[in-house]
Amino acid sequence: MKEIKLKPDEPFYNRVDVAVLDFPDGLQGRERQRCKVTVEFAESDVRQLQKRGLNVEEAMDYYREWLYKVIKVHLSQDWKCVDGYDQVMAIVEERVRSYY
Fold it and tell me: Between helices 56-75 and 43-51, what is the axis angle to 10°?
């Protein structure tokens, strides 16, 4: 399982870009950026989730699962985050909750 770090850019009102970093020389070694993922949480995105009947907790579960799957595709393997995950999800949750 790949260990990664997530580093969000300054969020916009409708999205946040997140750098995915890994550690080719181990956690104590240097970081390298593997890819960048854009997490979109515009009102129209959240409204689509609401139309599917999702409450705010279910919408957050959707975003967690979506983020995991997208990063897994980019890394071609399962991963676990050692830093930055809570920060990214706090940004998403703040914006998503504003629509509920």
Answer: 110
Of 68, 62, 65, 66, whose CA–CA distance to 50 is shortest?
A: 62
**Burial state string for 12-50 with b = 16 or more CB within 10 A and e = fewer than 16:** eeebbebbbbbbeeeeeeebeebeebebebeeebbeebe
Is the full-model pTM beyond 0.90?
A: yes
The H or E element containing residue 50 is helix 43-51
Q: Give the phi and the psi of residue 56 in degrees, each rounded to 5.
A: -65, -40
pLDDT digits (tens, 9 = 90+) for 19-77: 999 987 777 888 999 999 999 999 999 999 999 999 999 999 999 999 999 999 999 99
